[in-house]
C-alpha cells in the first residue's frame, strides 16, 4: 500500500506540472518527451535526451552526454560535466551595417585600386612612371612585395638616383557625423637618409606621415593605419590624398598603400 500511495502521489505531481512521458533507455539513461518544469536542484547521471520545452529554475548538474533538440525557457545556473551537444536554428538577414543607429558607409571609390590605373576613380600622378598604381607588371621577377589584397596597390618610390613624386587623390562628400580613414601601409625598403617621405592627407592637412627612417622600414608586412577624421564630417566635399616623394641616393625607398577606406557614419 505504501508503494502504491507513493506512486500515485508522483503521478499526480507530474500531471500538475505538465504532460510528461519518461522511459528508461536501457543504459541507465532517461528519455523525456513533452513539457517539463523543474524547480530546485536536479542531478542526472547517464544519458539524457530531451525533446520539447524545458524550463529550469535552480541548479542543474549533468554528468554524461546531454543532447538538447529544442530548449525554451530560462536557465539560472547550469553546470555540465561530460559532452554536451546543442542544436540551435535561427534565421538572420543583414542588409546593412549599423553602429549606434546609423548606417556605416565606405565613401571612397575603389579604395583597393582594383579598377586599375586610369580608371577615373583617382587622380593619378607619377614623375617617372605616369601612375603610382601598380599590379604584377610593375614588379621585377622575384620581388618580395606586392598588394595587400587583390592585384593592385599604390606604390610611391621604386627608383634610386632619381627624384620621384607620386600621388593619388579623390574628392568625396562626407556627411555630418563621424568619419574614419583607414588603409594598409608598408615600407619594405628604405634608402635611410631621411629624404624620402610619405603622407596621407585630407584637404592638404596631414593625417599620417612616415619617412625612410621610420621603424617599420624594411618590414615586408602591411600594417593597418586608422585615423579619426570626424572634423571633416561636416556635410562638405573634401579631397583625400596619398602622396610620396623620394630622392633615393643608393637604395630605392618604397611606400605602399592598399585597401583604403573612408568610413562615415552620418
Q: Oligomerization state of this entry?
A: single chain
The strand count comes to 16
Assign a percent range to the helix content: under 10%
Radius of gyration: 32 Å
Succession of helices and strands: HEEEEEEEEEEEEEEEE
Termini separation: 77 Å
Beta-strand residue fraction: over 45%
Unreliable segments of 5+ consecutive residues: 1-33, 35-39, 41-45, 47-51, 53-99
Query: Which class best fits the helix and strand makeup?
Result: mainly beta
The largest sheet, given as strand count, sense and whether it forms a barrel, is: 6 strands, antiparallel
Mean pLDDT across the residues is 75
Apparent shape: globular
Q: Count of DSSP helices? A: 1
Description:
The chain has 266 residues and is mainly β. Helices cover 6% and strands 53% of the residues. The chain has 1 helix and 16 strands. Strands 6, 8, 9, 11, 14 and 16 form a 6-stranded antiparallel sheet that branches. It has a 5-stranded antiparallel sheet with strand order 7-10-15-12-13, with no helix packed on it. Strands 1-2-3 form a 3-stranded mixed sheet, with helices on one face. Strand 4 and strand 5 (102-103) form a beta hairpin. It is globular. The N and C termini lie far apart (77 Å). Residues 1-33, 35-39, 41-45, 47-51 and 53-99 have low confidence and may be disordered.
Amino acid at each position: 500500500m505504501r508503494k502504491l500511495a507513493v506512486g500515485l502521489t508522483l503521478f499526480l505531481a507530474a500531471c500538475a506540472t505538465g504532460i510528461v512521458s519518461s522511459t528508461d533507455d536501457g543504459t541507465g539513461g532517461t528519455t523525456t518527451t513533452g513539457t517539463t518544469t523543474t524547480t530546485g536542484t536536479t542531478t542526472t547521471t547517464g544519458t539524457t535526451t530531451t525533446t520539447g520545452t524545458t524550463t529550469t529554475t535552480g541548479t542543474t548538474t549533468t554528468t554524461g552526454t546531454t543532447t538538447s533538440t529544442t530548449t525554451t525557457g530560462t536557465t539560472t545556473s547550469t553546470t555540465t560535466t561530460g559532452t554536451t551537444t546543442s542544436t540551435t536554428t535561427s534565421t538572420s538577414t543583414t542588409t546593412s551595417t549599423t553602429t549606434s543607429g546609423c548606417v556605416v558607409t565606405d565613401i571612397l571609390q575603389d579604395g583597393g585600386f582594383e579598377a586599375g590605373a586610369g580608371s577615373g576613380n583617382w587622380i593619378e600622378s607619377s614623375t617617372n612612371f605616369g601612375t603610382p598604381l601598380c599590379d604584377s607588371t610593375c614588379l621585377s621577377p622575384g620581388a618580395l612585395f606586392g598588394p595587400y589584397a587583390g592585384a593592385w596597390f599604390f606604390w610611391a618610390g621604386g627608383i634610386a638616383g632619381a627624384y620621384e613624386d607620386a600621388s593619388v587623390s579623390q574628392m568625396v562628400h562626407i556627411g555630418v557625423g563621424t568619419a574614419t580613414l583607414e588603409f594598409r601601409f608598408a615600407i619594405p625598403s628604405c634608402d635611410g637618409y631621411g629624404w624620402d617621405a610619405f603622407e596621407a592627407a585630407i584637404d592638404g592637412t596631414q593625417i599620417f606621415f612616415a619617412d625612410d627612417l621610420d621603424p617599420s622600414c624594411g618590414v615586408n608586412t602591411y600594417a593597418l593605419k586608422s585615423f579619426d577624421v570626424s572634423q571633416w564630417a561636416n556635410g562638405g566635399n573634401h579631397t583625400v590624398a596619398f602622396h610620396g616623394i623620394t630622392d633615393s641616393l643608393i637604395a630605392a625607398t618604397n611606400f605602399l598603400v592598399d585597401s583604403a577606406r573612408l568610413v562615415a557614419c552620418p
